[in-house]
Amino acid sequence: MKKYLLSLVLSICTTICVFAQTVGVGGQVPSAQVEVLGISTTQSLNLQAMQGRVLLLDFWATWCSPCIGGMTHLDELQNAFSKDKFRVIAISSEKKTRLERFIKNTSHQFTFARANDGLQSIFDYKVIPHAVLINTQGKVVAITSPKNITKKVVQQVLDGKVIDLPLKKDNFTFNFKEDYFKADPKTQSSFVLQPFMKGLPTFSKRYNKGPFKNRRLTAYNLNIPGLYRIAYKMANVRVILEFDEALVAWKNPKNRYCMDVIAQDLDAAYKSAQKQLTASLPIKARIEKRKKTVVVISQQPGGIKVKKAEKKELFSARGDSFNGTGATLENFRNYLEKFGLFGLPVVDETGLKGTYDLQFSFDPENPTSFKEAMNKLGLNYKKQEREIEVLVLSQEK
């Protein structure tokens, strides 16, 4: 009995150690299981047991628009080779029911699979899409962006040739809470504009607590239109460029800046950002009213179908959902517009001014899903013409 228990403990220890190790380029794929989706019976694949064919593991999620946009490329790759030689496996850790809905509403030629978060630690990534290319001996030959893996690359791996693709290495030292401007907590008023900060992603934040509570704005590695959008609280669909967009091309780090604004309150911080950006940059901004095609949201005849909330609270949002306990219709309108769900400005004509419990989710790949979700809220939406405020950016002459 003791011998059995010792063997069991050793077995568990071995499994944990294997899954704790990170596999990089040149490393051997461990004995990891993924559950195949989109088939009538439950079936698992052991990645280590797939030797003899080239594997492309594509880590993705249903809410990741670059992931979805890249699936046409994955289809082209899979169609170019037989599955007994090359297999694309798109892996997500989302709920099985959500993944099954995505598969049902789309048509792709590669294999969908589900795995827990253990694979994320094995292949050491934070940002998706994330591609891992494995040769016929079960060795990782590339960790890169899926777009870098072409038919030619797959054929080279099948032929046993050495490949050298750009390494995708996510920044694991990044800390969203870190103050990379190192501002003195006693600072009462400040505006700082710095060049691109290498090693940091593009992000912005406000401060809800601490010495800078409700009086500071920070943005990292945004281009000029992005900085102005923050300063004027404008969505991209309301920005009009009166110059060649190449002048602010995102791919050139020299076109990106970091901004830090501290003031007595948020309103003053936004006004300071507007004034200082105009004084500092060759691109100037102005607010105008123009007639544009917009999406108008309004109440259905039966009225809105959500409960009123006593007070305004925090809410969260992503491309496929909005969750607010005590959110306003302006919060929801802003979500629809800033996440580009219509690709147009959104105007709220519901006439509702209170706060509500707004729970909204849909499947982006299913066009009817969005309409059903809006119906649950008791909201209509329709394209119409309206005169709205837009942010016009022009080059200094």
Describe it:
The protein is 26% helix and 30% strand. It is an alpha+beta fold and 397 residues long. The chain folds into three domains: 18-158, Glutaredoxin (3-Layer(aba) Sandwich); 187-281, no CATH class; 285-397, no CATH class. The strands form four sheets. The protein has a seven-stranded mixed beta sheet. A four-stranded antiparallel beta sheet has the order 8-12-10-9. Strands 11-18-13-16 form a four-stranded mixed beta sheet, with helices on both faces. Helix 7 runs antiparallel to helix 8. It is globular.
In short:
By secondary structure, the protein is an alpha+beta fold. The protein has helices spanning 2-20, 65-69, 71-80, 96-105, 118-123, 151-158, 224-232, 266-280, 329-338, 367-377; strands at residues 33-36, 43-46, 54-59, 86-92, 111-114, 130-134, 140-144, 190-195, 203-206, 216-223, 239-241, 256-262, 283-299, 315-318, 321-328, 346-348, 355-361, 379-395. A seven-stranded mixed β-sheet has the order 2-1-5-4-3-6-7. The chain has a four-stranded antiparallel β-sheet with strand order 8-12-10-9. Strands 11-18-13-16 form a four-stranded mixed β-sheet, sandwiched between helices.
